[in-house]
Amino acid sequence: PFQLLEIIRKEDVVLRAILTTHHHWDHARGNEELARLCPGLRVYGADERIGALTHKVTHEQELRFGAIRVRCLFTPCHTSGHMCYFMWEDGSSDAPALFSGDTLFVGGCGKFFEGTAEQMYNNLTHVLGALPKETKVFCGHECTVRNLKFALKVEPENEMVKQKLAWAKQRDDEDLPTVPSTLQEEFLYNPFLRVTEEPLQKFTGKTDPVEVLRTLRTEKDNFKKPKERPHPQAVLAFDWGLFSPFLEKK
């Protein structure tokens, strides 16, 4: 929370509300402290388990913060109370934005902790997938390279996967973000949005889209990224015995 408050101070704005996608600690753990430091703070979400919750929202409910408009999109599966937020600004030429929490990632989707493949299929196809294609996707975690390595395993001939993976690796090397993407891009390389495509059906051995999605999620849960080669300097350090004092048995 203190990092966030420092950003708010630098931007010279006032924190009035928090939109929380779900109750997991890595998304909501700062709510209580922020509420303590900012009296009157409104905390929006769809799950009673969200810390410091003051306003419970429902599917397709719309909120307004000045010129910014927010549509709440209920996407249960990762958690039973997961809410995504679709935002746009009146009179702006900028593309709208989707804050997708742990439902939709760049190149992937969230684990089915409290829901089913049927729910996630509905989330990705009928709820989020129906948004304007130019929508920018801001997800809750940046695991783009790992997601795209799995996408490449699923579709080794998909040129868009190859290009996006090479781009993401370069961004990582330069310590630059890979978020956001756009919804239009996601449909080209994200396997969880491509469940009706022939290569996905061939990979999973299924034809029903929900079963394709269910199998993909199981495969992704068990996916191990290729082992990275040891860092050459670390290898030299071992060769020279620099770690020996730490490795000796007592």
TrEMBL record:
Family in the record: Belongs to the metallo-beta-lactamase superfamily. Glyoxalase II family.
Keywords in alphabetical order, please.
Answer: Hydrolase, Metal-binding, Zinc
Q: PANTHER family this protein is in?
A: BETA LACTAMASE DOMAIN (PTHR11935), HYDROXYACYLGLUTATHIONE HYDROLASE-LIKE PROTEIN (PTHR11935:SF77)
Please state what the protein is called.
Answer: HAGHL protein
List the gene name.
Haghl
Give residue ranges for domain Metallo-beta-lactamase: 2-141
State any GO BP term from the record.
methylglyoxal catabolic process to D-lactate via S-lactoyl-glutathione
- Please name the CDD domains in this protein's record: hydroxyacylglutathione_hydrolase_MBL-fold
* Pfam families listed in its UniProt record: HAGH_C, Lactamase_B
Q: Which GO terms describe its molecular function?
A: hydroxyacylglutathione hydrolase activity; metal ion binding
Name the InterPro entries on file. Clx_II_MBL, HAGH_C, Hydroxyacylglutathione_Hdrlase, Metallo-B-lactamas, RibonucZ/Hydroxyglut_hydro
The prosthetic group or cofactor this protein requires is:
Zn(2+)
